Amino acid sequence: MAIQVGQAAPEFKLFNTEKKEVSLSDYKGKNVVILFFPLAFTSVCTAELCSIRDNYNVYTSLNTEVVGVSIDSLFALEKFKKEQNYNFDLLSDFNKTASKDYNTFYETFAFGMIGVSKRSAFVVDKNGILQYAEVLEDAGKQPDFDAIKACLEKI
């Protein structure tokens, strides 16, 4: 069942590229944009996250942290982050728990891969309440960043 805007966002505990465990509750008091993406180093995922990198000041000006989440290992994400000079955390959902909790999960994906995160965007307010949810069935599309920013401006 899909999570709904207005309900508490599912808690997660995932490792970032610095091998530090990060949880949603670590961001209490700030808004959070959670971007699930299928796979590091792919063209659409790279373009999506570079867009965030290049506009990160917009998010920080709205008291917002951004995290990217994929099923890649933290070691692959570390290389991806370094190569692209991302200025926000990438979190490894290698065990696929957060992807399932946020109902953003392909059982089967391209090339016979099983268990990959769908491209999706969630906005969680400073109190941990889900304010925006967008789950894309087409991995070739990007989230609506204008709608995300509009949501952040309202909260």
What does this structure look like?
The protein is an alpha+beta fold and 155 residues long. The protein has one domain (30-154): 3-Layer(aba) Sandwich (Glutaredoxin), CATH 3.40.30. It is 28% helix and 28% strand. It has helices at residues 43-54, 56-60, 74-84, 97-101, 145-154; strands at 13-16, 21-23, 31-36, 64-70, 89-92, 105-108, 114-117, 120-124, 130-135. A hairpin with a 5-residue loop joins β6 (105-108) and β7.
List keywords for this structure.
globular, 5 helices, seven-stranded mixed beta sheet, 155 residues, Glutaredoxin, two-stranded antiparallel sheet, alpha+beta
Question: Under the CATH scheme, which class?
Answer: Alpha Beta
Oligomerization: single chain
Which strands sit side by side, in order, in the main sheet?
2-1-5-4-3-8-9
Low-confidence stretches: none
CATH architectural name:
3-Layer(aba) Sandwich
End-to-end distance: 25 Å
Largest sheet: 7 strands, mixed
CATH superfamily name?
Glutaredoxin
Order of helices and strands: EEEHHEHEHEEEEH
Number of strands: 9
Helix content: 25-40%
Proportion in β-strands? 25-35%
